[in-house]
Design goal:
The protein is about 25% helix and about 40% strand. It is an alpha+beta fold. The two termini are about 30 Å apart.
Length: about 100
């Protein structure tokens, strides 16, 4: 698997921002087939930092429904894999530099 295909996007939410400030843990949405070693190598390559720890979790798919004029529309949101990456002491990633 190519390194460019492993990282999909960083997760930017209030909860992930709190983890960044308090513990130095960054959240990324990653490919479902990627393992911890591949994720670690991709982050070290793209961001130029040293990774201390990688934790992964797979979020399940969810069923969603909404009311419209035509009636109730039901569907599913796909599941995804998330990686929580803890960097080495004193290192950081600037995720907001190119926004």
């Amino acid at each position: 698997m190519k390194l460019a295909d492993i990282l999909i996007k960083p997760i930017l939410s209030e909860k992930s921002n709190a983890l960044q400030e308090q513990r130095g843990v960054y959240s990324f949405r990653v490919d479902r087939k990627a393992n911890k070693l591949e994720i670690k190598k991709a982050i070290e390559t793209f961001y130029g930092v040293n990774v201390a720890e990688v934790r992964t979790l797979t979020a399940p798919s969810k069923s969603k429904s909404r009311m419209t004029k035509a009636g109730v529309i039901s569907g599913r949101k796909p599941g995804y894999k998330k990686a929580l990456v803890k960097l080495a002491e004193g290192e950081s990633i600037d995720l907001y530099s190119n926004i």
